[in-house]
Design brief:
With about 270 residues, the chain is an alpha+beta fold. It contains eight helices and 14 strands. Strands 2, 3, 4, 5, 6, 7, 8, 9 and 10 form a nine-stranded antiparallel beta sheet that branches. Strands 1-11-12-13-14 form a five-stranded antiparallel beta sheet.
Length: about 270
């Protein structure tokens, strides 16, 4: 019987086609890096389901149907949850890790973020396709020096107190604190529910849809009720940004053109 958490060969082929990647010959580190970059380029980070009245279901088949069948994106629980299923089907050993996202100097609540620990070529790697601007390639979890990545310089540092937690920083700025213990996808459901429903969650306050661009920049569509309309943000590799306010028809066209999302209506932020 097919393991419900392992996609069928047909689904794997469709997933690889979705991200424009070939099936790797082996579950190695170089192959993992290519899969991660392909996923980041093809599948946007977005929270549109919250603002379209669509449920976010943390079950492997539901995530695969959204990302592959409906050709949508998602946020961390969805994107890393779906990618974990693909990697397992390709022969990788994958664990789900919980992280606390930094807001200034302090980390947020547990299960605020979902990331992946993937074993390849005898090493453990941090893989994350669901954090927006982050590492393009896997990071070594046991490396304590600087790790150069196209997105910047990353460090993975043990926290004090002997908890085993790891702080991940980009260019010296803390990003999130990893709990090294493995969890089940269902363990993230309560916090996912809060993120998608609470007025205190930043995901309910604004729409976002974002992906990296080939030149190393980023393109984003976002809206809030306060600003009105949908804004198209283009961020250059050097960090400079341009902004354009779009009318409804133009915004729907921008979702198709830049993200491959065929929406029949615009998501509305509260």
């Amino acid at each position: 019987m097919q393991n419900a958490e392992i996609p069928t060969d047909e689904r794997v082929a469709a997933y690889l086609a979705r991200i424009g990647a070939e099936r790797p010959a082996r579950a190695g580190a170089a192959e993992l890096a290519r899969l991660q970059e392909a996923h980041l380029d093809a599948v946007p980070f977005e929270n549109l389901s919250i603002h379209l009245g669509e449920p976010v279901v943390l079950e492997p088949e539901a995530l695969l149907e959204k990302v592959v069948g409906r050709r949508r994106g998602g946020f961390c629980y969805e994107l890393n949850g779906a990618f974990a299923a693909l990697l397992r089907a390709l022969g990788y050993r994958v664990e789900l890790l919980a992280a606390r996202v930094f807001d200034g100097a302090e980390p947020g609540p547990p299960f605020d973020h979902l990331a992946l620990r993937v074993e390849a070529d005898g090493a453990a790697w941090l893989v994350d396709v669901g954090f927006g601007r982050f590492a393009r390639r896997p990071l070594r979890l046991d490396e304590r020096g600087r790790q150069q990545d196209p997105a910047g310089v990353f460090t993975v540092t043990p926290t004090s107190g002997g908890t085993g937690d790891l702080d991940v920083a980009l260019d010296g700025a803390p990003q999130y604190r990893l709990d090294p213990r493995p969890y089940r996808l269902a363990d993230f459901a309560p916090t996912c529910w809060w993120q998608t429903t609470s007025p205190d969650s930043h995901f309910t306050r604004a729409t976002t849809c974002s992906r990296p661009t080939p030149d190393g920049g980023r393109i984003t569509l976002t809206s809030t009720r306060a600003t009105g309309g949908t804004r198209l943000l283009r961020t250059a590799p050097d960090g400079t940004r341009t902004e354009e306010l779009l009318e409804a028809d133009a915004a729907l066209g921008a979702y198709r053109t830049h993200f491959g999302l065929a929406l029949d209506r615009l998501p509305t932020a509260p």
